[in-house]
Amino acid sequence: MRRVMHGYIRAVDAVNYRIGRIAMYGIFVLMGILLWSSISKAFFLPSLWTLEMAQFVMVGYYILGGPYSLQLGSNVRMDLLYGEWSIRKKAWFDLFTVLMLIFYLCVLLYGAVSSTAYSLGYWGTEPFSYLGGVVIGTEEIGRMERASTSWRPYLWPIKGVMVIGFFLMLLQCTSELCKDILRIKGETI
């Protein structure tokens, strides 16, 4: 079992490390969009797409970088008591908090999947109505969701990024859970 946990930790950490390193460059994309927004407002007609595109890039940057941040341990902690605890006591506390985070991420992932299904034109009540290729509920295909602004972009791409980001964060949390279990058993990671 320990070998499986170590393999899972290595695989998830490697995927999130690479995606996180790529997502770091999203800040430069964001800066480019905001620079173009400033230039176009000062010298040309203002671009309609810059504000929303900057928001979309920021969402991708934040959500895809979250698992990488969690992996590095760069999330904010209250170090008043935690810093003085032993590694094993920290692992017990982290195990409890990561279980709460996993529950929260499952709720977020469910909502993100249903919202993405809605934005792709599925107007049913359950996004997971297909089980093994069998239709459980009724399906109604509508038109794809667009933003209500003057630019009117489709919303499914950013909602898809949110689904991927929440899923990667869930994988990283289970990796952290495995690390905590191994630390409690006295292993070094």
UniProtKB/TrEMBL annotation:
Subunit structure: The complex comprises the extracytoplasmic solute receptor protein and the two transmembrane proteins.
InterPro entries to which the protein is assigned, alphabetical: DctQ, TRAP_DctQ
Principal cellular location given in the protein's record: membrane
Family of the protein in this entry: Belongs to the TRAP transporter small permease family.
Membrane topology: Multi-pass membrane protein
Protein name: TRAP transporter small permease protein
Keywords: Cell inner membrane, Cell membrane, Membrane, Transmembrane, Transmembrane helix, Transport
Cell compartment(s), UniProt: Cell inner membrane
GO CC terms, sorted: plasma membrane
High-level lineage: Bacteria, Pseudomonadati, Pseudomonadota, Alphaproteobacteria, Rhodobacterales
